[in-house]
Amino acid sequence: MLAAGIVGLPNVGKSTLFNALTTGHAQVDSYPFTTIDSNLGVVPVPDSRLRELERVIRPEECVPSHIEFIDIAGLVQGASRGEGLGNQFLGNIRQVDAIVHVLRAFKESNVAHVFAEVDPVRDAQVVETELILADLELLKRAVEKRRKEWQTDPRKYAAEREHFESYLESLEKGTPLRDLGLGRFQRQELKALGLLTGKPLLYAANVSEEGYGSGEMDPWPGSDLQASVVLVSAKIEMELGQLEPDERVLFMEELGIVESGLERLVDTTFRILGLIRFYTLVNNKLRAWEVEKGTRAPQAAGKIHTDMEKGFIRAQVARWDQVVEHGSLQELHTQGLLRTEGKESEVEDGDVIEFFFHP
Predict the structure, then answer these.
(1) Residue 156, CB half-sphere, CA atoms under 13 Å: how many?
(2) Average pLDDT of 221-245?
(3) Contact at 8 Å (CB) between 214 and 255?
């Protein structure tokens, strides 16, 4: 399961947001470094297509896809040099696949902040700078270790050397590696190296409760940040998560909230990870599965079970909206509307798939 780390400066609402996401019980308080050990929670991905399929098919069981969120200790200036809980913070964030950076965009005098004024853009730059500095130190060490091999066999390691040197040049200019438009192989290379600024990033702007959902909240000054931004009120979202479904609907209507900020946050996290969803219906169990965009059918089958990938024969595929329209895969089969896909076909977002394989 892919994981996203919730990061940010101390007292920006990370643990409150984590509790809202997971309906968890991470400790929340108003002094720095409340979170020392990371909290982990698994969150279902909101999926309107799955709900429609469930409504039509009426399976005995319906299982959405999931993402793991990790609440990581707050970072301060100097974390790349070990200040605060810097070493622990950097070690934890190296393990995640994506970063959700919580920015404080609310003013509340009884909640301490590491700076005198609330400025989410400055806070974003502080954390980004620390990540860049940490990457620079790590990459310089990696280059020194590899330099002897590069000199021993220049042709064999030419591509690796070119990659490492381009990463180093970008970091020295203050450019995070995610901005380089790297391909899949290079993203995997960055992950193997433990580099932080190559990870997908989104900002969760934690705004005040006043006017949340109605468009009357304090102006958001961070529209020029070079990443996706989702506005949330962590406090309200946590309150929503503690209500019964009927009460939650009423409360959202009162506040003018059409779509939960958490739903937008989880959906955006899913998207920046480059994931898509496909669906299966087996033994009256409807289930969503997440795979990277571009995954071929056998590898998608392997997501369910390794034997299915090894013995893959073919896949019968329909679009989710075709299933909703006609009521079942069987009806689509009867009308000749199912398409047969082989080993080279790529799974598309929203496919409903039946896999055939040698056991």
Answers:
(1) 8
(2) 79
(3) yes
